[in-house]
Amino acid sequence: MGEIDKITGLPKELLDFEKLGKEEERIKVRVIQRRFRKLVTIVTGIQSENELKELAKTLKKKLACGGTVKDREIELQGDHKAKVKEILVKEGYREGLIDA
């Protein structure tokens, strides 16, 4: 048997607080047009700074596009609205809370 958490009294294997946070975040995905008719996909609503950077890295890799984290938002080059929602669901975010 594993370790017991001092606060909850439950085994530590059952406590995955990172996953619990993911399931409650309300995420918004939108596409905007920038200069010279370039499209940019914006993902907002991720609370954790570490999670924001890791998710940006994952999205850029899976979508084969460039992007950045700026002002607590993930900016991806191109129109990836539908694919971003699929990837977020696979990463553990609740589909009902993703506004795409």
Main attributes of the structure:
24% strand, 3 helices, five-stranded mixed sheet, Translation Initiation Factor Eif1, 33% helix, 100 residues, single chain, alpha+beta
The CATH topology label is Translation Initiation Factor Eif1
CATH homology-level superfamily: SUI1-like domain
Helix proportion of residues, in percent? Answer: 25-40%
**Strands, total number:** 5
The Cα radius of gyration reads 16 Å
**Can you tell me the overall shape?**
elongated
How many domain modules? Answer: 1
- Give the overall pLDDT as a whole number: 86
Number of helices: 3
Distance between the termini: 42 Å
Strand portion, in percent? Answer: 15-25%
The H/E string reads HEEHEEHE
- Major sheet size, sense and barrel closure: 5 strands, mixed
Low-confidence stretches: none
Can you give a write-up of this model?
The chain is of the alpha+beta class and 100 residues long. It has one domain (25-99): Translation Initiation Factor Eif1. The protein is built from three helices and five strands; from the N terminus they run αββαββαβ. It has a five-stranded mixed sheet with strand order 3-4-2-1-5, covered by helices on one side.
Write the layout of secondary structure elements.
Elements: H1 17-24, E1 27-33, E2 39-44, H2 49-63, E3 67-70, E4 73-77, H3 81-90, E5 98-99
Parallel strand pairs: 1-5
Antiparallel strand pairs: 1-2, 2-4, 3-4
